[in-house]
Amino acid sequence: MTHHLFLARASDGLNSNVPGVSHMPHIQPAPPRVLIYDSSSLQCDLLTTALESLRLGFEIESANDVESLNALLAKDANCVVIISDATMSGSAITLTKQLRAGFSELPFILLLQEGRLNRVIDAFRTGARGIVYSNENLDQLAKCVNCVSRGEVWVRAADLPLIFDGLSKSNVRVTGRVRLSPREEEISRLVAEGMSNREVSRTLKISESTVKNSLFNVFEKLGISNRVELARYMNRGSDVAGPDFRERLPQSRTPSASPFAVPKVVRR
Predict the structure, then answer these.
(1) Got the DSSP string for 114-155?
(2) Residue 162 belongs to what domain range?
(3) Model pLDDT, residue 149
(4) Best CA proximity match to 197, nearest among 181, 183, 214, 180
(5) In the beta sheet, which residues pair with residue 168?
(6) What are the tens digits of pLDDT across the range 104-123?
(7) Are 89 and 62 in contact (CB under 8 A)?
(8) Within a domain: residue 245?
(9) Model pTM score
(10) Are 144 and 136 in contact (CB under 8 A)?
């Protein structure tokens, strides 16, 4: 039996059994929009058909090249992205870094082959919200999509100690200051101050695509994966130490008293 664990928002389930507390009627959320990416059009079609066969109401689109993927996200980034590593030979992690640079709040799931724990750790370093293995049944992927669409994080319980251990270790240590171009320094400084890509582009009077490309180059130069690490680097200047798990784990977009409540184990 495989156990899966998801970390729920702290607000979930509050006051559910408190006498005298009035409750709002439960409103069933709309099924999530799902965007599937694989460099193979055949794999995209197979995965799309498989998810549609569950008849869960998912609105599913797919892309098998980065240009089409970016075009779909530019049109509407309110979706859960599934990135399949089946035919990408490990380049899925590079793609997630590119997506994170351009769409900082984008929730994505990686579909990985069993036994690639290093990629699982790298995936969470880049901000993945869910990991599903290609040998797991389709129901697990569907449950993962639903959890991630609600702002939760889906991970196999057996992998959790190793993931914690991997994320607690410094991914990179930089001695001295890495040489960034003047434009990269300028963009990095504004991002570290909390500006979005759009705000940076307006401030510097450059296109958002220039901001995205520059951030991706900065991430690659510094060996980092997200804006939290960039802010740490810009503020500390001479030393980058990997953030702990709480900082790396993507937060729910719904405000709450604390990022996550007590984990709940999902059994199948």
Answers:
(1) TT-HHHHHHHHHTT-SEEEETTS-HHHHHHHHHHHHTT-EEE
(2) 3-11+31-169+254-267
(3) 92
(4) 214
(5) none
(6) 788 999 998 877 677 788 88
(7) no
(8) no
(9) 0.61
(10) no
